[in-house]
Amino acid sequence: MAGLKDHSKLLLMERPASKERKMEEESKKNEILKACQAIAQVKTEVDKLFQKVSSLQTSVNTGTRVNEKEFIILTELLMVQLLKLDSIEAEGEAKALRKSEVRRVQGYVDLLDSLKTKNANPFGDHGSTVAVTTNWETFDSGVGSLTPPSSSSSSFTKPTQDWERFE
């Protein structure tokens, strides 16, 4: 008979490869968690900066002239946040979060650039263009036309005197 006998002790041991795999999974989870926390910090900073971008947008759209330095400062602050996002090493879910946040920041930078050009030329295209129409007078002279003027519209003058001819 093979097997265990009554009252014998059994010692279970875990494989070393299994321990390593669990430790690797745990460290990956910790790295993803750290990356998500770093992305969340950048996101809160970007949210604060967006409030400033939004107020600038309101000012420019209402026609208020804004100092160009404001645009430069906000653009630089957003670029710093982009650099922070680029320095975050992420995998999986954190990588997708980082990518979406990078796109968001780039969109705000593009918005600032368009607002800057709109602010530099406040009388440019605001969507309210003035259309000038000209009512041209029409003539039946036949000049420039391939068809002669109609005889009914023009009146012929009848000479009242005989004209003398010189030869």
Describe this structure in words.
With 167 residues, the chain is an all-alpha fold. The protein has a domain at 23-120: Up-down Bundle (Methane Monooxygenase Hydroxylase, Chain G, domain 1). Helices cover 56% and strands 0% of the residues. It has 3 helices and no strands. The longest helix has 46 residues, at 16-61. The termini are far apart. The relative contact order is 0.10. The model has no long low-confidence stretch (mean pLDDT 82).
Percent of residues in beta strands: under 5%
Into which percent range does the helicity of residues fall? 55-70%
Approximate shape: elongated
What's the gyration radius in Å?
41 Å
List SSEs in N-to-C order: HHH
pLDDT < 50 runs, ≥5 residues: none
Major β-sheet profile? none
CATH topology of one domain: Methane Monooxygenase Hydroxylase, Chain G, domain 1
Number of strands: 0
Organism: Saponaria officinalis (Common soapwort)
Protein name: BAG domain-containing protein
Keywords: Chaperone
GO cellular component, one term: cytoplasm
Please describe the structure with a list of short key phrases separated by commas or semicolons:
167 residues; mainly alpha; Methane Monooxygenase Hydroxylase, Chain G, domain 1; elongated
Annotate the secondary structure layout.
Blueprint: H1 16-61, H2 68-87, H3 93-120
Helix pairs in contact: 1-2, 1-3, 2-3
Short structural description:
One of its GO terms (molecular function) is adenyl-nucleotide exchange factor activity. By secondary structure, this protein is mainly alpha-helical. The protein is 56% helix and 0% strand.
